[in-house]
Amino acid sequence: MHGRWHIAIVGYGAAGQAASLFLAEQGHRLTVFEQAAAPGPVGAGFLLQPTGLSVLARLGLHEQALAQGQRIERLHGCNVSGHCVMDMRYADHAADCFGLGLTRGSLFTLLRDAYADSAQIRTGACIETIDADGRHLRDSAGERYGPFDLIVAADGAHSRLRASVPQLVRRQRTYPWGAIWCLLPAEKWPYHDVLQQRYGGTREMIGLLPVGRRPDRDGRWLTFYFSLPGEQIDAFDDAALVRLRERVTVLWPEALPLLASIGVPQQLQRARYRDVVLRTPVQGRTVFIGDAAHAMSPQLGQGVNMALLDAHALADALAASDDIEAALQLYPRARRHHVAVYQRLSRWLTPLFQSERDGLARLRDITFGPLGRMPLARGQMLKILAGMKTSWLR
Ligand SMILES: Cc1cc2nc3c(=O)[nH]c(=O)nc-3n(C[C@H](O)[C@H](O)[C@H](O)COP(=O)(O)OP(=O)(O)OC[C@H]3O[C@@H](n4cnc5c(N)ncnc54)[C@H](O)[C@@H]3O)c2cc1C
Full-prediction pTM beyond 0.90? Predict the structure, then answer.
């Protein structure tokens, strides 16, 4: 083992957490910064794809993740008239293939508990900029840190560090639609291994994803999400909650009893999505990983997956060369194709599920079902779902 570099990791979300584990394992000296005073999970739960699970396996956390989460075997979505739009089974890709529903709390706790130096994380430190020398960081209180041999920017979709290097940014925009979401007790919900969705044209989408256990509460849980235009998310109030129940009654009456535990709009978290494309994730001694490098709409359920894959690929690149500059050349090559495929796919697919383009809903509802039954197209769709699509040609 070589290295032993002094590395700053900015942001302790999935990307920063996984990077901390991989890079600590390689013997580097880490300083981890997190803006939250008490780092913790944000949001409800998510679907982890087989590729992301393989990264957890590499970290020795596979069994714990399986014990905490819920195996997802199938994705099923239909429109309001009961017409099936999507029906994909992981087992049709490979017999032992499945996704894992996990609460954000479960993944956060799993990764934090595995990190021996979690007590040393510099919490409440909002890193604002990278100094002109590319080796120091400055926080919002003006304090300067460094020099670092490497800066890992893992500060999420709204990355401030990305703003320090505007020349890297090829594309950066906020989607007009987002979602509200929360965890709900699964109670007697019968579809314990299925991600279910209901679509009302392209303007309404409801999802229920079984996500297993929470570290802080008993029972089994579901992630509930409801798609909304951005301005309605920002203004989600009591009246909006009443409207939400009315719409669920129309679109998916079977799901309505699950909403009984939602008393106030504040129980629902608000999420807006960004579409970010960098020319390259590396600038000097700084490398961008996770949403900071490639925020995308969560339509394909790949963001956490990508964050874990990035951290793993970065560790592999650093292990491959004693020269840090040379190692940093390897990283973009390792991730370029995979990231580009999912960025494009999520950009193309999102309006089919979240937009005001009603004609697209008709097109989607007519084509997706038959496409999913054609062996070649089905194989490609399953590969995309499982996070394994790495090029257009293969
Ligand atoms: C509604 C919704 C559903 C989703 N569903 C899925 C799914 O099913 N599957 C999936 O794989 N992905 C899903 N995603 C995407 C996924 O949540 C993200 O891609 C993933 O969390 C990105 O991880 P990250 O570590 O890059 O960023 P984050 O999780 O955003 O972490 C960034 C961290 O950096 C910290 N930070 C930010 N700025 C600073 C600063 N200046 N200084 C210090 N610290 C800072 C933040 O506090 C945070 O802790 C979903 C997203 C949304 C919104």
Answer: yes
